[in-house]
Amino acid sequence: LVKEAIETCLNAIEDRGLDEEGLYRKPGVLAKVNKLVKEAIEKNAVNALDFSDEIEWDTKTLASAVKAYFGRQLGEPMMTFHLHALFIEAARHVGFQPAPK
Questions:
Q1: Residue 36 CA to chain centroid, in angstroms?
Q2: Which one, of 48, 46, 42, lies nearest residue 10 by Cα?
Q3: Nearest Cα to Cα of residue 30 among 57, 61, 69
Q4: How far apart are CA 36 and CA 43, in angstroms?
Q5: C-alpha span between 66 and 91 (Å, rounded)
Q6: Digits of tens for pLDDT over the chain (101 positions)?
Q7: Cα 73–77–20 angle (5° rounding)?
Q8: How many Å apart are CA 19 and CA 59, to the nearest integer?
Q9: Residue 29 and residue 55 in contact, taking contact as beta carbons nearer than 8 Å
C-alpha cells in the first residue's frame, strides 16, 4: 500500500519536475510535506489528494515528502556507511566523468 503512494508521488515528480534545479536538494513547504507523509503515505490516502494542482503540490514538496518518508523508515542510509569506501573507489574509476556544471 505504501508502494502505491510513493509511486504516485514519484510519477508526479517525473511528469513535471525532473528538469527543476535542486529538485531533491531544495526543500518543499514543511506543512504540506508533513500532511502528505502523514495522510497520504502512512495512511495510504494518496488518492484523496489531487496532485494535478501544481501550486498546491509543487514537485519540491513531493520530493521532500518522499525523502522524509524514507528517512524515517530506513534504519540506515541506502548507500550504507560500510560500503562508503567502495562507492568512493567506484567514483574514481578510470571511465568516470563528472557531470558538466
A1: 12
A2: 46
A3: 61
A4: 10
A5: 26
A6: 467 778 888 999 999 988 888 888 899 999 998 888 887 766 766 666 778 888 888 999 999 988 888 777 766 677 778 888 888 888 787 566 666 76
A7: 90
A8: 11
A9: no
Phi-psi region of 22 (alpha: psi -120 to 50; beta: other; left: phi over 0): left
Q: Tell me which residue of 79, 61, 58, 81 sits closest to 69, measured CA to CA.
A: 61
C-alpha to C-alpha distance for 72 and 91, rounded to whole angstroms: 28
Residue 42 corresponds to which cell in the numbers above?
Answer: 502512512
DSSP letter string, 7-63: HHHHHHHHHH-TTSTTTTTS---HHHHHHIIIIIIIS--GGGS-TT-TTTT-HHHHH
15: left (phi over 0), alpha (psi -120 to 50) or beta: alpha
